[in-house]
Write a structure and sequence with these properties.
Blueprint (H helix, E strand, L loop, with lengths): L1 H6 L3 E8 L5 E7 L2 H9 L1 H14 L18
Antiparallel strand pairs: 1-2
Amino acid sequence: MDELARSMPGFVDFKTFTADDGERVSIIEFDSAEHQAAWRRHPEHAAAQGRGRSDFYASYDLSVCEIVRRSRFP
């Protein structure tokens, strides 16, 4: 999915983090709600989500967020 997400219009960044207990979080950032919605509806992505639900994950939590404020250093 990383490669597919990176090919989508408006793609900004893709990061995945895994905790010591195996819990995983992926953060996929797009430049607009419209581009994020196109990613959500992409047939290959939808199929991968279905496979995740049926074959890999007992549960999941999905959040769609907007950045209200960002600070960076340096």
